[in-house]
C-alpha cells in the first residue's frame, strides 16, 4: 500500500537521533513525527489527485519533502535544555519561515498495516480529538477496522468535534467484520457525524450495497455542502445507487464525484445520471468499471451535458458500445474546459470513435490526456483521429493501446503528431498489430519532442530490423533510447490477422501522407 511504501522510504527519527544524541531524543521524536505527518498529508493529497497511478509519484514527493524538511532541522541543530523545558502555549503563532509547526488540522490514523482496533486502542488513537481547543478539521480512519466497541468510543468523540470537521475519510474502516457488526458501526458513525458541514466525504471500500448506504442515512441526509464525494469499490448496485440519489439532499456544490469499480449496471446508471444532472459544478467525474451498458451509457452521456465545468471525465472499462459513444459525441462539445478524457475499453468501434474524434476536434483543443485503448479502432478511423489530434496541441498523454491500427493506421496517426505537440510526454500504441513501418513512424513522430519520456510499442509484430531502426531514429533525435519502453512482448515473427506485406504498407506511406496534408489544409481553411 502507499502508506507502507512511504514508511519504508526512510527513518527520520533515527537520523535525528544520530545528530541530536541522547539529550535530543525526545526532540528528535517530535520533529520526526511532525515531518512525517506533514509530508504524508501533502503526498496523500497528491495521490488523491492521481487515483489511476500506482503511487510512485506520491512516494517521490514524500521523499523529496521529508528530505528538505530534515535538512532544515539538522542545520538548526537540537534545542538547548532550557529551550526544551520552556513552557509552550497551546496555540502558538506560526512564523512564516517555520513550516514544521503549523496548527494540527489533520488526524490520520491510516498508517501502518491494516488492523482491527477495539475500544482501548480507539480511545488512544482518537485522544487528540478530545483535547480542549483542538483545531482538527480533517480525519482519516481508513485502513483501520472498527469493531462495535471501538465505534462506541469513537461516536461521542466525533459528535463533540463534528461542527469543526470539513473532511471525513472513513473508507475501508469495517474490513473483515461480520455484516451485522459492520452495519452497526456505520450507523454509529453516521449518527455521530449527522449535521456536520462537510466539503469532502469518502466512504469507499466498505462493500456497502444498499444496506450500507442506508446505514449512513443520517449522515448523508444532512449533507448539503459536499464538494467531493467518493463511493468507490462499494458494491453500488441499482438499489444502492437509488438509495444514494434519494438520501443526498443536494449535489449542486459537488466538484468531484467518483463511483469507480462498482456493480451499477444500466439500471443503476439511471440513478447516477439523475445525480449528475443535479451536479452542474462537477469538475471531475469518475464512473469507470461499473458494468454500464448501452442504455445506461446513453443516459449518463446525456446527463453529463449539464456539467459544463467538467475538466476530467473517466468512464473507461464499461460496455457502452456504439450508441452510447454517439450520445457521448453529442455531449462533448458542451464541455469546453475538458482537460483529461479516459474512454478506454468502451467498445466504441470505428463508428463511435469517429464521432467522438470529430466532436473533440472542434471542442477540446486544450485536452492534455486522451485514452482510447481497447476500442477495436482500425485504420478506417485513423483519418478522423488524426484531424482531432492535430487540433490538440496541448496533448501530454495519448493512449491508443490494444486496438487494430496496423501500419496503415499508424502512419496516419504518427504523421498527425510530428508537427507541434511540444508538450507530449507519453504515447502508448502497444498491441496494435504494428510492424516495421508503423513502429518507425511513431519513433520519428516523438524523437524530437522536448518533453517526451515514454514510447510504448510493445506487444506488436516489429521485426528485429525494425526495432534497430526505431532505436537509430531515437538516437538521432533529441531524445535518447531512454524513452523507449519494454519490448518483452513484441513478436518479431508475428503477422497481423489479415496478412499484409510490409513493403505494401511502406509504398502507401506517401499516399497516406498526401491524404493527411489535404486534411491539414482543410483544417487551416
Automatic annotation (TrEMBL):
Q: Where is this region: Disordered?
A: 484-525
Under the heading InterPro entries, the entry gives:
Leu-rich_rpt, LRR_dom_sf, RanGAP1/2, WPP_dom, WPP_sf
Q: Where in the cell is it found?
A: Cytoplasm; Nucleus
**Identification of the protein by name:** WPP domain-containing protein
Report domain WPP positions. Answer: 1-82
Q: Which Pfam families match?
A: LRR_6, WPP
Which superkingdom heads the taxonomic lineage of this protein's source? Answer: Eukaryota
This protein's record includes keyword Cytoplasm: yes
